[in-house]
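Fold this complex.
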Amino acid sequence: MSPLTRHETNMSDIEMHKMEQDALAAIEATRSLSELKQVRARYLGRADGALTLILRKLGTVSIEERTRLGPLAQSLKAKLEQRCDAKEQEILHRGTSPVDATLPPRHPLNGKLHPLTQVRWQLEDIFTRMGFIIADGPEVESEWYNFDALNMPSWHPARDMQDTFYVNAERRGTSRLSQTREDAKKMRLVLRTQTSPVQIRAMEKYGVPLRCIVPGRVYRNEATDARHENAFWQIEGLMIDKDISLAHLITVAKIFLKDLLGDDIGIRVRPGYFPFTEPSIEMDITCQLCTEQRGKSAQNNAEVKCPVCKGTEWLEFMGAGLVHPFVLNAGGVDPKKYSGFAFGFGLTRLVMMKYGVSDIRLLTSGDIRFLKQF
Amino acid sequence: MKISLNWLRDYVEIPKSINPRELAEKLSLHVVEVEGFEHEAELFEHMVVGKVVSIEKHPNADKLSVCTVDAGIAGTKLNIVCGGKNVREGVLVAVALPGSKVKWHGEGELVELKETAVRGVKSYGMICAGGEIGLDEVQARQTIVGDGLQILDISNTRAKPGTPIAQALGKEDVVFEISNVSLSNRPDLWSHVGIARELSTLFNKPLRLPNVSNQELRMRDKGKELSVQVVDKNLCARYIGVLIENVHIAITLEWIRKRLMAVGQRPIHPLVDISNYVMFELGQPVHIFDAAKIAESRGTTRGIARTIVVRKAKRGEKIKTLDGVERELDETMLVIADAREPVAIAGVMGGENSGVSEHTHSIVVECATFEPISIRKTSGKLGVKTDASQRFEKSLDPHLPAYAAVRVRQLLRACADKGTTPDVRSAVDVSSKISAPKPIRLPLEALNRRIGTPVPRARAKKILLGLGFTVRGTAKEWRVTPPSWRATRDVSLPEDIIEEIGRHLDYNTIPDALPAFSIAPPPVSAHYQLERALKPFLAGAGFYEVEHKPFINPSEWHGFGLEREDHVEIINPIDPSARYMRQSLLPGLFSDLRLNRGGMDALRLYEWGRVFFAQGGGDAVKRGVDQRVPHQPVTLSLVSCEETDAEEMLRRVKGTAQEALRAAGYLVEVKTVAAAVSLYHAGTAFSLFVQGAHAGEGGVASEALKVALGLLSKSSVGIATIVVDALAGLTPSVPTYMPLPEYPAVQRDLAIVVEEGVAYDEIKKSVRNAAGPLLTSLALFDVFRGKGIPQGKKSLALRLIFRAQDRTLKSAEIDDCMHAIADALAHAWAGVVR
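Structure:
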């Protein structure tokens, strides 16, 4: 008789008890279904499970042994199976590993679009839904497109409204003397002061009828502070067709402003002056900051000192008008047959309004702590 | 520009029911932008009329007294300590109560008054001098005489104690601040009469102009004592000069001073006050010379006419203007000169040499029309903007000077000291032919179509007539003639007339209407599509978009291989050091890396924008002209900074560029190139090609660049630039479906140790050649140097996938392939399979 057989068949109660303790501990310690499966096989496996072997050998031992061990082994088998089943249910229900649900989330890689891009895209989407082309033009622009073609000849007082950067775009190094006569004939170049020169370029490129918007960077030669920059973004809109009217302009503006700022936004039209539109208008929107304040303190309605609109309830939003016949002519469009409207507003300013950014310079700071917030 | 409500009421009846806020809104909605308004009375808040009931000596100060004052507070009299010498029992005084704002002794800033003790005696306010409550100098002077402070005695007002001071002194005006920018095209609105005309149309009330009808100046024929020569008629359409003697005015009338004060003009000198008054009333600048100084300067004898010459300045000529500054003139500038030298810069500022003083009793009044562009240029060159130049440069009505000249004389007479009468000795009017405004044809159908709604004819006509236009014509077409004050530049087209009608109708009442247009979708630009594909891809890859102003300082481009002569240069920069336009987005991105280096383990940034090159190649400067604007392509540059070696960073940045472009629909070929500049780490420079066209470049930043910019050397910075403009002309490719394989693949891994100098590309080629067609894919999954690998060698781990199109491969076939590969690598590269 092999030691194993002896051990298994001549098992004392103490040994039997120990097997029971070991098996229960092993079951308890399992963490996964595969571990449980191994433990189950070790004790209860049909081929060579420790308990299975004992039960199988019972036929070969003496009757006293059999009557003594038989019920013990049978009840142990039932107990282990029940424990294994219970453990299986527990694992299925509870999962296999401990979880601290309050640990912070881990985010996938996620960069950000610049806030200017986000708001610009929102506007581009509104206008492309309305069938507008998105057009663009050079930022280093000729004086002709930036001023003259827009009915602003060099003597025009309106040029005072826009301080201009002039640029030299000649490659240096070549002989200066030989160039001077040529240079004198050359047209001066500027950093465009407005997106309006693209009105002319778009008319030339696409012809009429035409509807387009022009988002773009523009430049003004002025000192910078928290509210003024010498380079910022504008969006220009242009629509030319037969019989375009002020009513069309105002209605299209209302549609896009409501889409952009919500149905509750108030819109006010008043006269304005721009050399490239006639009639010219200005559009104001209700000041959202003090609309909120007014809502909160309805009792002292009149005395809201709003820092944004200075208590006037209105904020200047954009300039607009019917395209001046001179400008249509400059773009090669016959003003007798066609009319159009144009508008322009500050995208950078809109971004600042939308997010409450108090210093315009943050937008070009490249500071991740700022860019992360949008 | 400031506009006084009381002054406006001189010319038009403004309904009492309209408060200042509503009036400001009405002006904004129909005429000009009102930036705000102020109640004059606000300056006199918490100030009341008080009656001095009794006076006692101050117990602790000789010069002070303690007054008991009835300030209209029921049952209470106030104790006020006062230093005024002229305080008497029974007089009415201005009492500033605690909370009011006063100027101590009429000087310095306004200070808020508090209840206080003066040398041990409580004082509930202050009995004020004129200057202390902001009255003008003339009124103040009346009260500050002799030694010591004189309080303001207002007994003559006979006001009840407790009456607000503003009411008692008639300081109840409202002053509107009008945006000058919104007046750029309206010379006529730079005056109270101009604004009043608009209001008369808005409220449908008559306009009452100053009546000067029986005071016509008879020009030319009166007197020979003044001669006016206009040399440059182009620059001076009209010049009226009036020589007036026997001018004695101690002080202008109170209502004139009040009005000037209201619009922010402190009365200076009676003659200056009168000329200012007429300018703010009519919009016509008036200049008054001291005639005696003009005469003296010529050294002529009496009887010969004083000479006014309107001419261009001579080069180098100088004049000391009224502000005390000596200014050098040039030949483009128009001056008013006597026979010897300039006495004024025409339309800009008078000269000190001819200015009026307390001793002036003989004057030359100038009312002229100067050419606006010339005034604008002169004012710009000299850097002097005056009330006069601002008006002249808007193009004034040439009819206005005659009116203004008469008005000046009228006011001189009204203000003249008792028993004196100013005597007009000579009046000269030199004018070019002043053309009458031409009628403009306005088809009424066009009016409706441009406004976008039918406009009631009667209403439109009333508006035009109210504004001074004349309207003739038929039911189909009007012939509208603008008034002379609108015809100088502003109104010349039918559109201009439409604007007049539209703004008075109120743009906000136009019913909504949408244009009819084709539903054919408009073309979508390639830039739009590229931006919408590239940016979201990069965001998903962890990149932040940054934005920079495109100005660059040469110190910033150091290290990027950029040359000064290729840069577009700003001629008139604000910041002379940053006077170039960027040629690369990288300097900005690197400065951001430096700025943000403390914050994060890995930094991934990109910018999208134009870069500028100092050579033509852009669009034409004008249609049909050869000259081009500079080449300024839209470009995207990205930088990725992480703690890893250059080789790994190069792999990542190439992968990013490739995948980004694939997201936009472009298959990109990356070619390693020899770097021409020190920007890139040795051997890392690459070029991007799309459909054979160069579409960008990249690499890993060189150590030199990192050191120069102060970046950590443990980190590597990957760089890629995509020239968006280069892609815009290419068509994105559409993927073609490949059938999925029917038979299983077999995967084998292979690690091979080779010399450091052997490029992966070469290994790849050898493997492919040796393996034959069964090898369907080959990928590098590890590069290892170090433990177990001899110095100077590297281990490359490859994953090979084999597959046949028509059967399941047998293990033996793959074994053969693997042997062939190992042999080939051993043979060609002395590679040892691990």
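The longest helix of chain B spans residues 811-829.
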